[in-house]
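Question (not urgent): is this output format expected?
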Amino acid sequence: MATKLLYIDDSGAVETGFILYGWLGIDVAQWSKALRCWLDFRKTLYRDTGIPADFEFHSTKFINGRDRPSNSTSWNRSKGNRRVVAQQALDVLASMPGSHAGAVYRCTGKKGPAYAEERASVYEATLHYLDRRLAAAGDHGIIVMDGDGSDPSYQREHRKLKLATRHIVEDPWFAGSDTNQPVQIADLLAYTAYQAVLAHPGKKFMWDWWTKRLPAAEAPRQV
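Got this back:
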């Protein structure tokens, strides 16, 4: 038996109809090694690109060039530089000890409050999928999500799980992505998985990142 920390973030947009949750799972027994792997990458990244180790990776902004991550103005001007770093980050995740990645998604035509309700439904499906996966392996898991816990729908879905048989323990724990590196990784996984299933022509350069850079990850699955 093992205990997993499951870092989860969402992606998608009302305009496209997609709702997606991506996750990074880390075996608690190897959490230190996994985090060290990432922090070593951030240290090297600072040396090579001038991006500080405490800079918050927010994939939508970073990959699309809407922030100034590096201390070098000339580096910041190139979207190509950002794409290289994003792919390097995925390569690091692929080799991170005791970890795995996956994503689930749904496409809907609902708008407004109905879209929000559908989003909660997709999270419910994500939760049940992960719970079944843990049960099959005889493991237990704790979910850590980006945010402050102000959205009650997440806690509500956790409390619907049958106490006698659930393998995801506790309500979700929340952590701000600005101070939590694994949550930032979950953001990267969610955004790249979203681009893989959306297949927008303007983001064609990202369509195969998930399959090429994360060969051992669970392919995004529709729920």
